[in-house]
Amino acid sequence: MATKIRLQRHGKKGKPFYHIVAADSRAKRDGRFIEKLGTYNPNTNPATIDLNFDRTLNWVQVGAEMSDTARAILSYKGVLYKNHLIKGIAKGALTEEQVEEKFAKWLEEKEAKIADKASGLEKDAEKAQAARLKAESEVSDARAKAIAEKNTPEPEVAEEPAAEATEEAPAAEEPASEEAPAEEALATEEPKSEEAPAEETPAEEPKAEAAPAEEEKAEEAPAADEADEAKAE
After folding, report:
1. Is residue 57 located within the same domain as residue 121?
2. Number of domains the chain is built from
3. Same domain, yes or no: 17 and 56
4. How far is it, in rounded angstroms, from Cα 95 to Cα 89?
5. Is 106 inside a domain boundary?
6. CA–CA separation, 4 vs 34, rounded Å?
7. CB 75 within 8 A of CB 99
8. Do 70 and 103 belong to one domain?
9. Residue 50 contacts by C-beta under 8 Å, 6 or more apart in sequence?
10. DSSP state, 161?
11. Residue 60 CB neighbours (<10 A)
């Protein structure tokens, strides 16, 4: 019977949660299994892996096959590296003390990398949160400014009465335009008053004509003088 280390899917839709199991390679993916080796939660960052290291290593040593995802998980947790070091003991290249020392050093470096990644993710999350809060504050400030500008009286509202006054000004001037014909009538009547003296001037003309009468009298005066002279003679 070929044994395979693989994942069984559990969890909700859109939020999968997996069990790491050793099962018959002929069994269905979510069917019966031989042994549960751990769990894998990809919904967190970094992913959360809970693994029974010794039992998983035992199944690898006895030749259990692995799916691609299971192989990546076992490599991430150091199961495959530990199996490689143990093979070195069988070949006489390493002792058990050297294997444990090398694996402890690798595990320490791996944990440091994971810690650095987690801290980096936390910093990125904090920066993203700060940027989001800043953007929200800018939006709220802009919205408050727009509301304040909307509530403040605009200069156009203050100028509206003046505009109305200018529109009413022609109506106020209409009486003046109505009175204009009366002024024009007066203007037309004024020449009549000027014509009256012009009509009286002929009355003075007889005076001018009387002057010749006086001249006639003056001319008649010598005739009277001549009569007196005749009487004197």
Report:
1. no
2. 2
3. yes
4. 6
5. yes
6. 10
7. no
8. no
9. 38, 39, 40
10. H
11. 20
Which tokens is 230 given?
Answer: 């005749």
Mean of the pLDDT values across residues 173-195? 46
Q: Which amino acid is at 176?
A: A
Q: Is residue 203 part of a domain?
A: no
Instruction: Quote the pLDDT of residue 193.
Output: 42
Instruction: Report angle CA 70, 76, 79 to the nearest 5 degrees.
Output: 75
| Contact by Cβ (8 Å): 18, 9 | yes
**Are 102 and 79 members of one domain?**
no
Q: Which residues lie closer than 8 Å to 114 by C-beta, 6 or more apart? A: 46
Under the banding of pLDDT at 50, 70 and 90, the label for residue 161 is: low
Q: What is the span of the domain harbouring residue 134? A: 95-151
Report which DSSP code applies to 52: -
* 205 pLDDT higher than 60: no
Tokens linked to 222: 């010598």
Q: What's the rounded Cα separation, in Å, for the pair 159 and 191? A: 48
Query: Are 48 and 80 in the same domain?
Result: yes
Q: How many CB atoms lie within 10 A of CB 5?
A: 27
Distance CA 110, CA 99 (A): 16
Please compute, for residue 64, the number of CA atoms within 13 A of its CA located in the half-sphere on the CB side: 28
How far is 35 from 14, CA to CA, in rounded Å? Answer: 26
Would you state the structure tokens that stand for residue 52, as one six-digit string? 């029974």
Contact 73, 60 (CB under 8 A): no
CB 39 within 8 A of CB 16: no
Residue with tokens 């505009």: 163
